[in-house]
Amino acid sequence: MRLDMRFLLVAATALAVLLLAIGCTTRPEPSETLVMEGNHSRGDLVMVTADTSSDGYHYLEPSLSPDAQRIVLTADWDAVPPPGHLPDPIPLLRQIVVMPVGSQLEPKLSIFEVGAELVHLRPFRFRVGDNPVTIDAHEQQQKGQPIWIDDDNILFWIETPRGARLFRCHVPVGFTSDDLIEPQIVFREPSDDQQFTAIPFWEHLSPSLSPDGNWLAFSRYGYVDVDSLNTATGQSIWIARMPTEGEISDQAFQITSIASQVDGPSWSPDGRHLVFHAGLDLIQSSSDIFTKEIFTVDFDTTGLAADGVVELNKNLVRRTFSPPQEGSPIYVRNESASFSMDGTRIIFVSDRRVPTLTYVDRNIWWIPQDGSLDPQLVFFTRSDDVDPMMTGGPGNEVLMSSAMGFPTEMLQRLWDESVQRLLATPIVDEDTDEITYLNQVQAEAIATGEREELEFFEGVMSHVYLLSNW
Question: Cα separation of 137 and 151, whole Å?
């Protein structure tokens, strides 16, 4: 997340001071009481991506199309290289990828083998004041957080000379990586029309489209100097009226007050509420910089047409309460919240079970929409589990990304199949034409070596999965 980079220096410094002060946390390692099924908690798990690239690509931020037929996600730039000559060096950027939904039963050599297509962006013009600037978003600008507008159109942010802006583009069924796709900006800051402005850089992140398609929620913050944290403003949730294709939104307004972190808005199914994460300075004068809690706020346009603004923090409610665990001064971070399709649950990412010395691994949790119960576990591994989305499919199906690698049950099936294949494969002596077969021990030893090669990908790559019956 771009926002996290703002706090990287401050957070690293604070953490170093903290650890020096306490010598290291005395928090005990969490006792494992989960019912595990191999390398993950209970549930029916299938891989959607199954790439085995030695470069260790990461497939993140998956979003399911309304017709549940395709997924849009982000990938490392060279995981889906465009046709033609590759640049040297390879850009350290993310690509936008669209692929069909499916269950992968075998490892793949690349994501192209599962039908993935690159959203290959053509250069476009972005106007700063009276000066149009040509932007090559494909090779030179960062991109992220894609969502679906409908079954044929997606929306995501692209970095511009004035900060991240939200763009849409057309990706109909049948488009390919060879197609050059034109991005269209959705909302411009008024200051984009000025050559010189008090706050030249505004970031528009974490887009979320209302169920009726009329409103676009996003997080917004600004800064004067990209190299100085001291010039950064706080963050808040904004709403823009979603324009028709080819148009730019003519209306945007703030719905939460400003705090150090206010990000990740997502709509309730009825379009009346938004869930998001924020620092506690949203509701009090100060808070630990590491804290992220889940909040909800009402969306109500009453009076909007009259004065162009709405009441800030309307019925703002804190839904999670995460004090430091015993022996640790570090608060839990909850983020990436979204509603279930029926609106009864909120699913989110949290590091509340993280072992003391890893500190970064996250897992997936849920609470009732009213926050009336303590967080309950959805999915747990010893790797990073992120970007959950409840699809509305059977068994409370969840689309997500994880660095867990190949599930144990898949590894065991592949091992069994490999052993049987090896036992049945004749070995012909080139000199005598004599035919022999491997014995059980030999076949199992080879199959175990193949399994160990696949186990290598745990923690090395982030794949997309579908989880149900958890």
Answer: 23
Distance between CA 311 and CA 304 in Å, rounded?
Answer: 9
* Cβ contact 237:255 at 8 Å: yes
* Number of domain units in the chain: 1
Dihedral sign, CA of 215, 216, 219, 221?
Answer: negative
User: CA 444, 449, 455, 461 torsion: positive or negative?
Assistant: negative
Inter-residue long-range contacts of 442-445, CB under 8 Å, 24+ positions, other chains counted: 443/418, 443/419, 444/419
The pLDDT assigned to 306 comes to 73
C-alpha–C-alpha distance, residues 282 and 263, integer Å: 11
For 410, the domain range is 2-468
CA 325 to chain centre: 26
Q: Which of 240, 237, 236, 188 is nearest to 213 (CA)?
A: 240
d(CA 43, CA 5): 34
**Please, what's the b/e burial string for 95-133 (b: 16 or more CB within 10 A of its CB; e: otherwise)?**
bbbbbebbebeebbeebbebebbbbbbeebebebeeeee
From the CB of residue 198, how many other CB atoms can be counted at a distance below 10 Å? 8
Please tell me the least confidently modeled range out of 17-31, 142-156, 259-273: 17-31
Q: Which residues 6+ apart lie within 8 Å of 154 measured at CB?
A: 72, 96, 98, 119, 146, 147, 148, 168, 169, 171
Q: Which of the 8 DSSP states describes residue 86?
A: P
Predicted pLDDT at 215: 97
pLDDT per position as a tens digit, 151-186 = 999 999 999 999 999 999 999 999 999 999 999 999
Tokens representing residue 152 in the block: 């044929």
**Which is nearest to 149 in space by CA: 84, 228, 211, 218?**
211
E-strand spans in 161-272?
A: 163-170, 184-185, 201-209, 215-223, 236-241, 252-254, 262-267
CA distance 289 to 362: 18
Task: CATH number of the domain at 33, please.
Answer: 2.120.10.30
Euclidean distance between the first and final Cα of the chain, in Å? Answer: 28
What is the structure's pLDDT at 194?
93
How many whole angstroms separate alpha carbon 103 and alpha carbon 189?
42
Question: Cis before residue 329, ω within 30 degrees of 0?
Answer: no
**Number of neighbouring beta carbons within 10 Å of residue 436:** 9
CB crowding 413-433: b at 16 or more within 10 Å, else e: ebbeebbeebeeeeeeeeeee
